[in-house]
Specification:
Elements lengths: L1 H30 L1 E4 L4 E4 L6 E10 L8 E10 L4 H7 L1 H13 L11 H13 L7 E11 L1
Antiparallel strand pairs: 1-2, 3-4, 4-5
């Protein structure tokens, strides 16, 4: 009789947890919000501007006693599709600015808590070079430190 009660309460607890989890997933998917780091606003995926994939950059981090490197894939969100031409023309300059900035960072500067600050630094640095438009945001499609 006690085992049946434990079994019934256990099943009820599992069912309750499943219902709560499904409700939370539903609420997250229903909101459809996505992060836009440049402006620190929420917006739906339909409002993301034209994208340009810079590609992979691998570089050393600032020396903190041990040698570390970072590999990052960056995607730019542009305010205008016409900016893509200028980005392609200035790709070496833009890549260099990102590499120099990353070289000045330690692994702690690339932690999850500091990535918004890093994104804003990259945006400011790159937008200073661009003349036909501006980058609205950048996305790290991959970021690995070792």
């Amino acid at each position: 009789v006690i085992n049946q009660k434990v079994l019934i309460f256990g099943c009820a607890a599992i069912a309750l947890c499943a219902v709560i989890a499904l409700f939370m997933v539903y609420m997250v998917l229903k909101s459809g919000a996505s992060y836009v780091g440049g402006n620190n606003q929420q917006s739906s995926a339909a409002q993301v501007g034209p994208l340009f994939e810079l590609g992979e950059i691998t570089t050393n981090l600032a020396s903190g006693g041990e040698k570390k490197y970072v590999k990052v894939n960056i995607v730019f969100e542009m305010n205008d599709k016409g900016l893509e031409k200028e980005i392609k023309e200035k790709l070496p300059v833009l890549s260099d600015r990102i590499i120099v900035l990353l070289n000045s960072k330690k692994s702690d500067d690339l932690s999850a808590e500091n990535r918004t600050k890093l994104k804003n630094e990259i945006l400011t640095n790159l937008n200073a070079v661009l003349t036909t438009g501006k980058l609205e945001d950048i996305y790290f499609s991959d970021l690995v430190m070792q």
